[in-house]
Structures are given as C-alpha cells and as structure tokens.
Design brief:
With about 110 residues, the chain is an alpha+beta fold. The protein has two helices and five strands; from the N terminus they run ββαβββα. Helices cover about 25% and strands about 45% of the residues. The longest helix is centred in the middle third of the chain and has 18 residues. It is globular.
C-alpha cells in the first residue's frame, strides 16, 4: 500500500565515516513526489550526526538522489565541523535538528 503524497514514510539512515570529518549518509523515503524531501532527510541526519560528534556545523559536499518504484534515495556526503565552515552550503546543526524535529523528520 502506497503512502499518500505529501506524507513521507522515512525508511532509515545509514552512516559511514569516510575520513576524519567527512561522512557519507544514505537515506530512503516513500510517499512524496518531491525529490527535495529526501535531500532534507539526509541534511537532518548530517546535522544530528554533527551534534553527536560534538560539532556545531555541517556542510554539504554532494547529494545524489534517485527514485525507483516510488522510493526516493539519497547518497550524500557532508563534512562536520566545530566551527562555521566556509561555503554557502553550511548548516547550523542545532537549528537544523530543531527544524527537523518540528517537521517530524527523523535524525540519526
């Protein structure tokens, strides 16, 4: 049975530390037509992971998304940092995790 559009079903997060502050997140969800939803899910996972590691910021390096049979997947790489990293893809982890919680998006 398919989830209604606009009500995603979050299917889990896989996390792999690649090197020092570089982390790979693989996430999947169903029940949406919006590819941005799976990217946001990965961002929520990265923000929570940064907090778990005692860091305050994360920055997106890359996100690849695919959709097959109604399941969206993202393969995303982020850096985590105790200080604000350079670049426009920097994320304040505390703010992002709070936003994810308010939006009902699970984190790590």
């Amino acid at each position: 049975m398919d989830e209604p559009a606009g009500r995603p079903s979050y299917m889990g997060i896989q996390t792999d530390l690649l090197d020092g502050d570089l982390v790979n997140f693989r996430v999947a969800l169903r029940g949406t037509d919006d590819p941005a939803a799976v990217e946001n899910y990965a961002e929520c996972a990265a923000a929570q992971y940064a907090l778990i590691r005692g860091h305050s910021f994360t920055r997106r390096v890359r996100v690849n998304t695919t959709e097959q049979g109604g399941t969206w997947r993202a393969d995303a790489v982020y850096t985590i940092s105790p200080d604000l990293p350079r670049g426009r893809s920097s994320i304040d982890a505390v703010v992002k995790v709070a936003d994810c919680g308010a939006s009902g998006i699970p984190t790590v």
